[in-house]
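Weekly sync, protein design subgroup
Attendees: M.S., D.O., the rotation student, P.L. (late)

Item 1: inverse folding check
M.S. brought a backbone from last month's batch and wanted to see whether the design step gives back something sensible before we order anything. D.O. pointed out we never logged the input encoding, so this time it goes straight into the notes. Structure tokens as presented (253 positions):
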């Protein structure tokens, strides 16, 4: 199946540019048709964590009020936050609950923001920022376990997908804090994902192995799938999209 996903990726035609606006007062997008509910993103430094929380809270309120069919929630960090709307699988309503720099503890503490929505699917990707901050594997996995339990309790009708932590670009990375990435062996991420897969199974969630799609023969992030060894390129998001199309529900249950 991994080979199939990569073959589909190679056959896809990419849009050349995925830009962002420079609005310093981002409005909320209320168009539910094959879109995700997300602000138009301004420069990252202009939005504090609390400002992001308020934005996500308001978007979740709209989702709870409108109850769009086939709602899928993206819960995570900047990798989810920057998912290009035009690359999200169609025929779903999307609520993006990503925040740049988010950790497992941070996500756990704000899951209540979308308690009153009725998602068909919740997609969780979180953990790389914990590793960057030096948080232990045990704490990361315990938080992941608690995240799954919370989502299963609050959204029993939803399918919960735990997505693997992606590798980084190692020495080829150009991210501004590259030295922090180099302190995290990609083999550690692979082992962490193996344990995360078991936790997902034990907690009644599904595990989506994206890690295997993004690694090169050395076990590092494939250069064409990343902009800086940490964040994803349009090609990387297209691979992610393809995996979502194959593994997540194609129609209402």
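Designed sequence read out in the meeting:
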């Amino acid at each position: 199946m991994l080979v199939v996903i990569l073959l589909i990726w190679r056959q896809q035609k990419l849009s050349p540019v995925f830009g962002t606006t420079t609005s310093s007062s981002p409005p909320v997008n209320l168009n539910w048709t094959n879109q995700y509910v997300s602000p138009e993103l301004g420069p990252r430094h202009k939005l504090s964590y609390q400002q992001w929380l308020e934005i996500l809270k308001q978007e979740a309120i709209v989702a709870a009020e409108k109850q769009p069919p086939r709602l899928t929630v993206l819960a995570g960090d900047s990798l989810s936050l920057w998912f290009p709307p035009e690359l999200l699988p169609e025929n779903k309503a999307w609520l993006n609950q990503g925040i740049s720099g988010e950790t497992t503890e941070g996500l756990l503490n704000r899951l209540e923001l979308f308690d009153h929505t009725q998602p068909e699917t919740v997609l969780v990707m979180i953990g790389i920022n914990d590793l960057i901050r030096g948080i232990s594997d045990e704490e990361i996995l315990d938080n992941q376990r608690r995240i799954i339990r919370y989502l299963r309790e609050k959204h029993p009708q939803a399918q919960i997908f735990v997505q693997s932590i992606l590798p980084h670009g190692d020495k080829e990375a150009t991210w501004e804090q590259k030295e922090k990435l180099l302190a995290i062996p990609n083999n550690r991420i692979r082992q962490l994902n193996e344990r995360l897969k078991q936790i997902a199974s034990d907690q009644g969630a599904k595990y989506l192995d994206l890690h295997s799609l993004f690694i090169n023969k050395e076990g590092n992030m494939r250069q064409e799938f990343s902009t800086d060894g940490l964040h994803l390129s349009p090609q990387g998001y297209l691979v992610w999209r393809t995996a979502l199309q194959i593994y997540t529900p194609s129609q209402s249950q």
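Discussion: Confidence is low (pLDDT under 50) at residues 3-11, 13-42. Residues 49-66 form the longest helix (18 residues).
Action: P.L. to compare against the previous round before Friday.
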